[in-house]
Amino acid sequence: MFGIGMPELIIILVIILIIFGAGKLPEIGAGMGKAIRNFKGATSEPDKKEPDKLEENKS
Fold this sequence. Notes:
Elements: H1 6-20, H2 25-58
């Protein structure tokens, strides 16, 4: 996973906990989940729109 081991991940999580506090972590997680979902949706949309573009070019 990008050369990051378990100790490094734990240190990163502790730093995030110190900076944002325990109360903000659920909000940050939800925001990241929405961002990932939007990114996946955006990357799959061109595949869905591809046949329409091909039909327009044939006309």
